[in-house]
Design a protein that fits this description.
This protein is mostly beta strands. The chain contains no helices and eleven strands.
């Protein structure tokens, strides 16, 4: 059974940092593209960062560019999201997702496996 489990969320003050981790089990995902999405109340789920299968291509939403860094460790079946200079508007539930097929896409419909989500709250 495939399972993706996020960790590292929580409450942080504006300007602070958090590192999210998403560990997968049940199969190997080294050839999959991976993404981080977020969803706030009443808003659509959006892709904030994505990484291709071998890590040499990444995508960042304009709102997080220069502040967030996505990385992956295929040996550990894990993807990370380092979030620096956090702002109150970064508050949301964050989800990791894996996509069969190694290239980056940013549509939620194109991802095959999802984590349960983890809350990130940035206080002003």
């Amino acid at each position: 059974q495939v399972q993706l489990v996020e960790s590292g969320g929580g409450l942080v003050q504006a300007g602070g940092s958090l590192r999210l981790s998403c560990a997968a089990s049940g199969r190997t995902f080294s050839s999959y593209a991976k993404g981080w999405f977020r969803q706030d109340h009443g808003k659509e789920r959006e892709c904030v960062a994505a990484i291709n299968w071998n890590g040499d291509n990444t995508y960042y939403a304009d709102s997080v560019k220069g502040r967030f860094t996505i990385s992956r460790d295929n040996a550990k079946n894990t993807v990370y999201l380092l979030m620096n200079s956090l702002k109150p508007e970064d508050t949301a539930v964050y989800y990791c997702a894996f996509r069969h097929g190694g290239v980056i896409v940013i549509s939620t419909a194109d991802y095959d496996y999802w984590g349960q989500g983890i809350q990130v709250t940035v206080s002003s």
